[in-house]
Design brief:
This protein is α+β, with helices and mostly antiparallel strands. The chain contains 21 helices and six strands. Strand 1 and strand 2 (about 70) form a beta hairpin. The strands form two sheets. A four-stranded mixed beta sheet has the order 4-3-5-6, with helices on one face. The protein is globular and about 70 Å long.
């Protein structure tokens, strides 16, 4: 297909994909992502932002994880995607960054219930969508954020459309059309960074439901542009105009290598690039740095996320909301130094008023390191100075939970159970066991129904 467009090449790959093509490592990754996403939905089920989405939803027959009520397929995808991404505790991909599980899993669960898909179709659709979303993220490093858009939101629409199309056995033309349609449903700006408002939380859910709609329309014969990705007026022209997309990198060894095998599972519920800095701060605390005597805190960082995690510096040092605190490098460093942890309970309305935390947060400064490898790798650096002139420094050249230091499946299961408890769910073990049954079921809808957990 030498003259084929990118979306035609992707549709050709997706239409011919079978379970035997999915590597063992990718199967394991997909299973772990399902577990992680379901646990995150349970953690967020009592949150105000999930309640607000539910208040807008239509009744139906589809599961919102952790809830007794049933909703339309689109609204179930929206609710579950919002819940999964809401605490910023979901998987990420070094090289993007994108959060694929919170988009793809809700979309596939909703379509699986709607169409009574077999477990193997569910697994195949999830794996394909996750892989495509990660590969799309490789095409335009830094550029989507630079243009003011959220990569998970805009790339997610394409990836969820593709995932749903593959899961439902849509033919090559239908997949191509689905991608073409999804290019016009993609949305999601990053203005939430200015005030800590909630819109980022809904981006994954919105991408899940809009991609599902695009896939069904494409299957039905609605025509989408064949060059939606690489055309003169295509996707990356709109959402990443500052870069010539790296299509060769995006398509490299498609069908031979699953890049999503190296996906990262987060140890902390906050912005991806904040996490290595928290580890550095915790390391300094464990080494006995006298926290109360710290007078200076300085970090080396990448220019790629200054506008999201560092600036405006006064706002980042004093987060206006608990959600804004998740995207503040000064606050994350302060948590690691002062508390030696950064759990769900540490990004709270009480925490952003804690003067011990704020004293440290207000001390944090930064300097751009031109050698920082972001977005290929996420690194951390913290240097502190105490009032007697002593200097302590910690570096980390990777994100914990990623390819360099992956979480074990036991750790991911433990994270699931902790998230279930945080959400007030007593049946965590049973729901965890139920996740394993989805990919094995003849009719996955029966297994998915158990995720309600109530």
């Amino acid at each position: 297909m030498t003259d084929a467009t990118i979306s035609e090449r992707l549709a050709n790959w997706g239409a011919g994909l079978s379970l035997s093509d999915v590597s063992t490592a990718m199967v394991e990754t997909t299973e772990a992502i399902l577990v992680d996403v379901v646990g995150l939905c349970l953690a967020a089920r009592r949150s105000g932002y999930v309640a607000a989405v539910i208040a807008s939803a239509e009744a139906g027959n589809h599961v919102a994880i952790g809830h007794a009520r049933r909703f339309s397929a689109a609204d179930a995808a929206l609710i579950n995607g919002t819940a999964a991404h809401g605490e910023d505790f979901d998987d990420t991909f070094e090289g993007g960054p994108v959060h694929s599980g919170a988009v793809i899993v809700p979309a596939i669960l909703a379509i699986a219930e709607r169409e009574k898909l077999a477990g193997g179709q569910v697994l195949l659709g999830m794996a394909a969508g996750i892989e495509l979303m990660c590969r799309l993220g490789l095409a335009a490093p830094k550029a989507i954020h630079r243009a003011g858009f959220h990569p998970t939101a805009v790339l997610g629409s394409l990836a969820s459309a593709f995932a749903v199309g593959v899961a439902t056995g849509t033919n090559e033309a239908g997949l191509r059309n689905a991608l073409g349609i999804a290019g016009s449903t993609a949305s999601g700006i990053i203005e939430y960074l200015g005030d800590g408002s909630w819109t980022k939380r809904m981006h994954a859910g919105w991408a899940a439901q809009s991609g599902m709609r695009a896939a069904l329309m494409g299957r039905g014969g609605f025509l989408g542009p064949r060059a939606v990705i690489d055309g003169k007026h295509g996707f990356f022209k709109a959402f990443a105009p500052s870069i010539d997309p790296l299509y060769d990198k995006m398509m490299d060894k498609l069908g031979e290598r699953w890049v999503a095998e190296t996906i990262t599972f987060k140890p902390y519920p906050c912005g991806t690039m904040v996490q290595p800095y928290i580890d550095c701060a915790i390391k300094l605390r464990s080494q006995g740095v006298p926290i109360e005597n710290i007078v200076k805190i300085h970090c080396l960082t990448s220019d790629g996320y200054v506008h999201r995690l560092w600036e405006p510096l006064d706002l980042k040092r004093n987060p206006p909301t608990d959600y804004a605190a998740k995207f503040s490098l000064p606050f994350g460093v302060a948590l690691g130094l002062e508390r030696g942890r950064a759990g769900l309970e540490d990004f709270s309305e009480q925490a952003i008023l804690d003067e011990a935390l704020l004293r440290l947060s207000r001390l944090v400064t930064y300097e751009i390191d031109p050698e920082d490898p972001y977005p290929a790798r996420f690194t951390g650096h913290v240097r502190v100075e105490t009032e007697d002139g002593a200097v302590f420094e910690a570096r980390q050249d990777h994100i914990r939970g990623g390819a360099e230091a992956p979480l074990s499946r036991a750790e991911i299961d433990a994270k699931f159970l902790a998230n279930a408890r945080y959400g007030g769910v007593e049946e965590g073990e049973a729901i965890l066991a139920g996740c394993a049954g989805i990919f094995k079921a003849t009719d996955s809808a029966t297994a998915i129904a158990k995720l309600a957990g109530v």
